[in-house]
Amino acid sequence: MFMYAILLASCFTILFSKREIRRASRRKGELSIIALIIITLMYRYLAGILEDSIRNAMILLITPILFLLVSDVFFGKGDVMFKRRVFKALLILFFIESGLAIIEFAFKGHIFPWIDTTFESNLYSAHLKSGFRSVALHGSPLTNALIITVLNTFLINSELKDKYKLSLWLFGFAAILAFNARAATILNVSVLFIYLIKLTFNTRTHGAIKIAVYFGATMAIGLVTYLVVFYNLGDRLFNDKLFDEASGQKRLDVFAIFEYHDLGYFFFGHPMKDFTIIQESVGLLIIENFWVCEIILFGIVFVVALVFLYVKLLIPYFRGFPWVTGGLVCGSFIALASTNNSLYTQYIPLFVFLLCMSLFRPNTFKYLVPPRYIKQ
Question: pTM, whole model, 2 decimals?
Answer without folding.
Answer: 0.85
